[in-house]
Amino acid sequence: MKILVAGIGNIFLGDDGFGVEVARRLARRPMREGVLVADFGIRGVHLAYELLGGYDAIVLVDAVPLGEAPGTIAVIEPDLRDLAPADDDLEPALDAHSMSPAAVLRTLAGLGGSVGRVLVVGCQPAVLTEGIGLSEPVAAAVEAALDAVDEAVQELCVREREESRT
User: I want to staple 52 with a disulfide (CB 3.0 to 4.6 A). Which of 34, 82, 113, 166 is the partner?
Assistant: First the structure.
């Protein structure tokens, strides 16, 4: 199984750099075979093109508005049918500096690619204004996010093994 763990976000906008920080820390850890960890930052088009390489799953790590207390971690599996491009939206997006995870997946579809499963490890941000560095509650949540990514990768691999047996 080939899995991409992608940290995304803008390190110059406070807690929006959450995914980048998690990817940076994950890159120092040993990962199971077939798992690539990368910091994509604000390079959404680059991420879409990377996904054309044939991944079975992607784990996106990002600051996500959850409506919860800052630092809350959630693992979300979006319905990919909701992300399919409309007939008038088949051209890939060209603004690489403002692409949300949904826009990346729409761009991927517009390029003719797809990915089997998508999980988002999201963290409720506290501060999204100009400035480098995570707020205290979001910085404190990084360790929990590392564990959430590990669990997500494990779950993806277990489910893949179970599905390949049937």
Answer: 113
More confident residue, 161 or 140: 140
CB 43 within 8 A of CB 99: no
Q: How far apart are the C-alpha atoms of 56 and 34, rounded to whole Å?
A: 10
Q: Which residue has the higher pLDDT, 161 or 156?
A: 156
Residue 70 near residue 16 (C-beta atoms within 8 A):
no
pLDDT grade, residue 165 (50/70/90)? low
The pTM of the full predicted model, rounded to 2 decimals, is 0.87
CA 118 vs CA 28, 53, 89, 94: distances in Å: 23, 15, 21, 22
Contact 104, 52 (CB under 8 A): no
Give the position of tokens 């990084």: 142
Identify the bridge partners of residue 119 per DSSP, sorted by sequence position.
Answer: 59
* Count of helix runs (H) and strand runs (E) in the chain: 5, 5
Whole-angstrom distance between the N-terminal and C-terminal Cα of the chain?
16
Residue owning tokens 């999201």: 122
Residue 22 near residue 150, CB atoms below 8 Å = no
**Spatial separation of the C-alpha atoms in residues 8 and 96, rounded to whole Å:** 12
Confidence bin at 159 (pLDDT 50/70/90): confident
